[in-house]
């Protein structure tokens, strides 16, 4: 029997340290801890797949929380099925001791564990959906109030107006005009079109 640990963070900007520390406290060797630092959106997770390929019958996989297995109800249940039924390995969810398949391996124990898993997976997905909805509603309200999102706009080059006039009067083509003011051709063309619709625009990138 071998013991493995799996940790996942949704982007490279997040720190997986808390998950790894919890796994090490369980006595899992560092070489048997697998970490993915990207979105689990399509479940194409390199380290997760590498771990699953190593797992054999009666091995144990530790995870900090149930949502590390997937981003939604369907994925969590699917991966649970692969690990416990196809691989015949065990799962231990550190944040939820009742989800420890090493215990109560009789029919009733397995049945109760599956019910709890399904319920928690559903609750986790519902909460994520609720958070996304609240974020969308908040963004919509902010936009109505004039709040702008994204990076701060950069000023147009000081010679943009001259380049624009050269292009409009036929003294230069788009490529020449864009090079004149140090812009990419497509960027110049886009800004020129917007400039036409609002000659008072002095900043926008």
Write the layout of secondary structure elements.
Blueprint: E1 3-8, H1 17-25, E2 33-36, H2 46-54, E3 60-63, H3 73-86, E4 90-93, H4 107-144, H5 160-168, H6 174-180, H7 185-197
Parallel strand pairs: 1-2, 1-3, 3-4
Helix residue percentage: 40-55%
Number of self-contained structural domains: 2
Q: Encode the helix/strand succession as letters.
A: EHEHEHEHHHH
What is the overall silhouette?
A: elongated
CATH class of the largest domain: Alpha Beta
Full CATH superfamily name of the largest domain? Resolvase, N-terminal catalytic domain
What's the architecture of the largest domain in CATH terms? 3-Layer(aba) Sandwich
Beta-strand content bin: 5-15%
Q: Spatial order of the strands in the main sheet?
A: 2-1-3-4
Brief summary of the model shown:
The protein has 205 residues and is α/β, with parallel strands linked by helices. The protein is 48% helix and 9% strand.
Describe what you observe in this structure:
The chain has 205 residues and is an alpha/beta fold. It has 2 domains: 3-130, 3-Layer(aba) Sandwich (Rossmann fold); 151-205, Arc Repressor Mutant, subunit A. The chain has 7 helices and 4 strands; from the N terminus they run βαβαβαβαααα. The radius of gyration is 27 Å and the shape is elongated.
